[in-house]
Amino acid sequence: MPWSNQGGGPWGSGPKGPWGSGPQSSGPNPPDLEEILRRSQDKLRSVLPGGNLSGKGLIIIALIAVLLWGFSGVYQVAPDELGIVLRFGRYVRDAQPGLNIKLPYPIETVLTPKVLNINRIDIGTRIEDGLRRGTNWRDVPEESLMLTGDENIVDVNFTVLWRIKPNGAADYLFNIQNPEGTVKAVAESAMREVIGRKEIQPILTGARQDVETAVQDLMQRVLDTYQAGIQITQVQMQKVDPPQQVIDAFRDVQAARADAERAQNEAQTYANQVVPAARGNAARIEQAAEAYKEQTVAEATGQASRFTQVYEQYKKAPDITRERLYIETMERILQGSQKIILDAPQSGSAGAGIVPVLPLNDLMRDQQQRPPAQGQQTTTSSGGSR
User: Fold this and answer.
1) Residue 124 region, left (φ>0) first, then alpha (ψ -120 to 50), else beta?
2) How much is the average pLDDT of 240-257?
3) 94 falls within a domain
4) What value does the mean pLDDT take over residues 195-220?
5) Mean pLDDT estimate for the chain
6) What is the DSSP letter of 114?
7) In total, how many domains does the chain have?
8) Helix 318-333 to helix 247-316 angle, to the nearest 10 degrees?
9) Residue 5, pLDDT score
10) What's the predicted TM-score (pTM) here?
11) In whole angstroms, how far apart are CA 67 and each of 43, 57, 62, 63, 236?
């Protein structure tokens, strides 16, 4: 045979096989387990009193093992964590941040979820890390396209911020298997439900805050029903637009609606200016008519009362009253006319005399109102009449 001249068969030149103690092929030798065990025993004997594994040495080893096992029950909880203590896999209590003590493993174990961390989930977009372009955002239309209540399609990208409830860490660990997936599914479902009850116009303009509040409340109710131990802190709508295919036409519609709203506002402004003025004029006319009415009625009432009083006096003294009425009437008639007194003829005189009345009061009033000329003095002359 071709290897008969080598004396050891195909595994070497020695008489032994590959598992014997004879010479082997070139390469590093494997470690000798017996030598390692022997050295470990020698070190242990040097530590133990007496130099051998006697009963006392075994007791010391057992005490050291018990102490190490007992110290394994001391653990620390970070400030942003909450300790969940399990006894044989069953929840028994919470552990606050700091040093705590539990029964050693495997009797009790501790889980420490981070209850103060704010987690973020983006729905409708994904972050892609590129070697050349850096971080990019990619749209996910199967998550963002939603149907509104007036049968329009809207593209909604939003972000959900959530955390673990301080008193719900046990529910978070044991009631849900995939927390992020659960929150994402609930958020997408809640947003679709809220968007499906509203029209597209308020969603695109001024109803974003209402939508965010409604989605947050609905998500919290659903997660509380699941007993997920999760608290939704905020819902933020990042982008709300029509689909890319119809965005130009939709912008034209938005511009037309804006023009119509502007025309309505201008008309309302004009109405707000004209209507109050017309109402003010109408109120002024009504008040003037009411005042004229009250004045006329008061004058008529006064004249009737005066006539009644005169009539009562007339019945008491008809002659005196008739003469008084005559004198008052003549006074009103002759008040603004020039007066001439005709003197009746006396017995033994030649005839009647005509004596004009000199209006001294009017002359004096005209003299006082006329300004005096320069270099002249105003003289006052007095005369008598007889």
Assistant:
1) left
2) 77
3) yes
4) 87
5) 75
6) B
7) 3
8) 130
9) 42
10) 0.48
11) 21, 15, 9, 6, 53
